[in-house]
Specification:
Number of helices: 27
Helix content: 55-70%
Distance between the termini: 81 Å
Largest sheet: 5 strands, mixed
Shape: globular
Number of domains: 3
Length: 660
């Protein structure tokens, strides 16, 4: 850093940057209308951090090993296997022989293009782990485990209609269907459904909300160490900085909420972290192995969540930047033939991994692209550029001022970053911009471009601008944001360490211990701020707006023996009330569908799946209650008291089956 020779000045400048950033964040929190002044304070905060950073590069590179001659026989067999796999993906169905040919073709392709070992790696990456670093890594994993699994059985407590759609798809898998693309509910990629089926079936969790939540929580948990790898081995950042990025993600309320809700959302940050782990490394080191693995990771990521489809755009731009900024300047150590081959192997490998979905997308483009197209280009918006500009503005506000409004995925309108991480993020993005402008390198520019590109899935909601900002469609940017946020925190802690050499002899190893202590305090505060929101107001809001389908299921099951089985229980429909599919799933009877649309239909038992002996009513449905009292004359009526005030319902039991 520029002022390393004057450690106290370096520490002072870093502290001033944080001070101005904190004041700007505080002003936004209490006076959102003072956004201009807050932006000025953030701008002032960037000046000292830029002075401290100076001309220091962000990442380290190394020359790649020479590319080997491809094993043409393996490549040809891979292409033959790909043809068989394509045939095996007909009718939107995975077949055993198609999957076998697909996996074999990918392995043969990688073997055919595999480079010899011996890549030159920066010395820092090969440094042995110190004990405190191992302890920090394990502690951060425990923190991630706490945020993603504590009270997972009860938070979130209830399913929505989207969850019902997902579990019906999982049921299809458990009953023997093997779709490549799941067309229910406007179409979804398959990865979540097969993982949930594994958890629900062979691993014994059962078909229910818990299986969905455990699956997505696992994916979210894995993203935390992947973010460390993305920073450490992808970008080549220091181990301590990478641990800070990992810790910020582990404690993030944003990542926690989209991870625990049980929908496909965490597959976006997971796919981004996995892909950019290898892609940043490929740009930095240039080894063919990393270009191949980038393609594999991208192909796998595309089976996760729709928002990840923006990732190929980033990789295309990043590949062009690598050719222009590294290959043209002779910094790769490769011939143009070798460099172009490496770049081409990425999309070719990803297409091979993507092959089954590729066939479906070619045969049914209207279904494959329906969800994306309806958000971007349908809906009758006339001023698309104006809508896009407003979307970008609202998107910028989500970090510090006003977030997503969907209560299922987040605390409505709550900024996605806490007040400390929000400051670090602004300063970190400024550092990346500064480095990219001063020392243009492909990996630095790609890191900088990763942020706006990965936010685009939300900004492109042109037909439904009310859906922007979206914490789920922007979720892919989470690993990048946390790495950026870790940069100024690490800078400040390093400057503190430099400013303490004179105290080392008198008070022990203060130079090493005090920055670690400060890091622990800062991260503890970050964890508290995020946990307080998620486990407090978010949980209360979710309770307020979700319907208690599990309690309806419990009430039916409690009377099952009394009425001769759950088949004799019915729910009278009511607008915007419980989704009866969720009641069925909560009872462990996913095919149960005993719904009345008119209470008088209890008389027409031949048109119903079973004789009605118990009917659940919305508390405001006085008309249906009067009808049942008239038909059944002296039914037993119970008022179920929900754990959440305002979610009560009425249980009406045929007099012949009433309890004593």
């Amino acid at each position: 850093m520029a002022h390393h020779n004057n450690p106290f000045l370096t520490f002072l400048l870093c502290s001033l940057a944080l001070l101005f950033g904190v004041v700007g964040q505080w002003l936004l929190a209490i006076r959102p209308d003072k956004g201009g002044l807050a932006a000025l304070l953030f701008g002032v905060a960037l000046v000292p951090i830029w002075l401290v950073w100076g001309g220091k590069p962000l990442t380290q590179g190394a020359l790649p090993p020479p590319g080997n001659t491809p094993r043409l026989w393996a490549v040809l067999l891979a292409l033959l296997g790909a043809m068989v796999a394509y045939l095996g993906a007909a009718h939107n169905t995975f077949t055993w022989w198609g999957v076998a040919a697909w996996v074999a073709s990918v392995l043969l392709w990688l073997y055919g293009w595999r480079v010899e070992q011996g890549a030159t790696v920066p010395v820092g990456e090969a440094e042995p782990w110190q004990r405190w670093q191992i302890a920090a890594f394990v502690t951060i994993l425990l923190l991630a485990t706490f945020f993603r699994f504590w009270r997972l059985d009860s938070l979130p407590p209830e399913m929505t209609s989207d969850h019902a759609e997902k579990l019906l798809d999982v049921l299809d898998v458990l009953e023997g269907q093997r779709p490549i693309f799941f067309i229910r509910n406007t179409g979804r990629e398959p990865m979540q459904f097969y993982l949930t089926a594994l958890l629900a079936g062979p691993l014994g969790l059962g078909l229910g909300y818990l299986a969905l939540k455990v699956g997505t929580a696992l994916i979210g948990w894995l993203t935390v160490p992947l973010t460390y790898g993305m920073a450490r081995y992808g970008l080549g950042l220091s181990r301590s900085l990478s641990l800070l990025a990992m810790a910020l993600l582990a404690a993030s309320k944003w990542h926690t909420s989209i991870t625990r809700v049980g929908l496909r959302f965490p597959y976006a940050p997971f796919g981004v972290a996995l892909t950019l782990f290898f892609f940043y490394r490929a740009q930095r080191l240039g080894a063919r192995r990393d270009w191949l693995l980038s393609g594999v990771a991208l192909g796998v990521a595309l089976y996760g969540y729709t928002a990840i489809r923006i990732l190929p755009v980033l990789l295309l731009l990043g590949s062009l930047l690598w050719l222009l900024l590294e290959q043209v300047r002779g910094r790769t150590g490769l011939s143009w033939r070798g460099a172009l081959l490496n770049v081409l192997l990425l999309p070719l490998t990803s297409l091979l991994v993507f092959l089954p979905l590729l066939r479906y997308s070619l045969e049914h483009p209207e279904l494959f692209w329906y969800r994306s197209a309806t958000r971007a280009i349908q809906g009758g918006q006339s001023d698309l550029m104006g809508v896009f500009a407003k979307n970008l503005y609202n998107l910028l506000l989500m970090f510090h001022v006003r977030g997503d409004m969907v209560w299922v995925n987040t605390l409505p309108l709550d900024p996605v970053l806490d007040r400390i991480t929000g400051v670090f993020f602004i300063l970190g993005a400024g550092i990346v911009l500064w480095v990219a402008l001063r020392q243009p390198r492909a990996v630095d520019w790609t890191l900088l471009l990763s942020l706006p590109i990965l936010l685009l899935p939300s900004a492109l909601a042109l037909s439904y601008p009310r859906e922007n900002p979206s914490v789920v469609r922007t979720g892919g940017a989470l690993p990048v944001i946390m790495i950026m946020a870790a940069l100024p925190l690490h800078c400040w802690l390093t400057s503190l360490r430099w400013a303490l050499p004179d105290l080392r002899g008198a008070l022990g190893n203060v130079q090493e211990r005090l920055p670690v202590a400060f890091a622990v305090v800062v991260l503890a505060v970050v964890a508290f701020l995020n946990g307080r929101i998620y486990f407090g107001p978010y949980a209360a809001t979710y309770d307020k707006y979700s319907w208690n389908s599990s309690e309806v299921a419990q009430a039916i099951q409690a009377h099952a023996v009394q009425i001769g089985g759950v088949d004799h229980a019915f729910i009278e429909s009511w607008p915007h009330w419980v989704d009866t599919r969720n009641v069925a799933i909560s009872m462990g009877q996913p095919r149960w569908d005993s719904v009345l649309h008119n209470a008088a239909s209890v008389l027409n038992t031949s048109a119903l799946p079973a004789e009605p002996r118990l009917v659940i009513l919305h508390p405001a449905d006085k008309k249906s209650l009067e009808i049942l009292q008239l038909i059944w004359e002296t039914p037993q009526i119970k008022h179920f008291q929900s754990r959440i005030p305002g979610k009560e319902f009425i249980i009406v039991i045929h007099p012949d089956y009433a309890s004593p």
